[in-house]
Design goal:
The protein is about 60% helix and about 10% strand. By secondary structure, it is α+β, with helices and mostly antiparallel strands. Helix 4 crosses helix 7, helix 6 crosses helix 9 and helix 8 packs antiparallel against helix 10.
């Protein structure tokens, strides 16, 4: 048996290493039906080497050198049996994908639910990507990003005036409704930007639709395989695309705002739009779930469930230091840093909101 040289079915895709509690795991995607399952680091070490060239004995030698233990035939039978059951080995009969039941266009109820907007989200974002591809080059995006940063710097420099204008806007119902409508359109662009960025780096989009929890109605765009994108920077690109789209949406209004005289009612409305739109974009970069900043940080540190796992680690650390010591050093650093950092961040945000409420009442 150890002379056997098994090979994985072509198209099997591995995800990068992810922290999950004290363990490191890898995701594996079935090339036929797209199903995903999770394996530990040792199983990944073995499965990823099933290339048809190396024998089980050779792979077992590499495993023994890495982990200090040689596998017996029983271990190999168990592993190959699992892969055979999932029909992931070359030569096994291909598992026919189950006929996909058409997703209902609407699910949920009157006050909470979702509504699918397009039948083929991947094709829709593909067409948008082809149309916008000339703008997605670095030579175009970097200057646009510079303009966005300049816009935010100008707003920060005139913070007193634009914040007073924003407060004035809240007392103008018609103008406020117009601004809210534009911000909703910006939210739609935010979600589509995730899908377009995914297509640009080789990802796929599984669904585009509306999600509501009255009175809130927002658009959503689900990227199906972002965990399997080849490079971490591609994952970060997909995550940050939404916030960048929000800022780009504001640029024409910023130019219009800059051309108007101070005190002009239209300029005051635009000040509110720029402040609220900038807050919408920048808040999304805060590393708290379910915001894009949290997703980006999770990609950067390579963690699957960063927030809940950090909470579990901190509780374990307070109750049983010896049990917490089982976590590898990298996991301890990541979970401790995020647990403390996110707690401090939440306290700072709460203090800022309370301060803003007190100031607004004083005014």
């Amino acid at each position: 048996m150890l002379a056997h040289r098994p090979r994985l079915r072509p198209g099997v895709v591995f995800g990068g290493p992810l922290l999950r509690g004290p363990a490191t795991v890898h995701l594996i995607r079935d090339p036929v039906d797209g199903s995903v399952f999770e394996v530990g680091a040792k199983e990944y070490f073995l499965i990823s080497r099933l290339d048809g060239r190396r024998s089980l004995e050779e792979i077992g030698g590499e495993y023994a050198a890495a982990f200090g233990r040689r596998l017996g035939e029983g271990n190999w039978r168990q592993l190959l049996g699992l892969l055979g059951t999932r029909r992931l080995l070359a030569g096994a009969p291909a598992r026919e994908p189950a006929p996909a039941a058409p997703a209902p266009p609407r699910s949920g109820g009157l006050y909470q639910g979702t509504l699918r907007l397009v039948a083929d989200a991947d094709a829709t974002t593909g067409r948008l990507h082809r149309a916008l591809r000339p703008l997605l080059r670095r030579a175009v995006l970097l200057p646009l990003l510079g303009l966005c940063l300049a816009m935010e710097a100008v707003l920060a420099a005139g913070a007193g005036t634009v914040l007073r204008d924003t407060w004035w806007l809240f007392h103008q119902p018609v103008a406020l409704l117009a601004v809210c409508t534009l911000l909703w359109l910006s939210t739609a662009g935010h979600e589509l930007a995730h899908g377009i960025a995914a297509r640009h780096v080789g990802g796929t989009v599984s669904e585009i639709g509306l999600r509501w929890r009255l009175p809130m109605v927002i658009m959503y765009c689900r990227v199906g395989n972002y965990r399997f994108l080849g490079r971490r920077r591609h994952q970060l690109t997909v995550a940050v695309a939404g916030a960048l789209a929000n800022l780009l949406f504001l640029l024409p209004f910023a130019v219009w705002w800059a051309l108007l005289e101070t005190g002009d009612p239209t300029r005051r409305v635009l000040s509110g739009l720029l402040v609220l739109g900038s807050a919408q974009a920048l808040v999304n970069l805060v590393p708290l779930p379910p915001l894009d900043g949290y997703t980006m940080l999770s990609h950067l540190v390579g963690a699957s469930d960063l927030a809940p796992d950090s909470g579990r680690y901190l509780r374990l650390r307070m109750r049983d230091r010896q049990a917490a010591a089982v976590y590898p050093p990298r996991a301890r650093v990541v979970y401790l840093a995020y647990g403390i950092g996110s707690s401090v961040l939440v306290c700072l945000i709460a203090a800022a909101l309370i301060t803003a409420a007190v100031v607004s009442l004083a005014l």
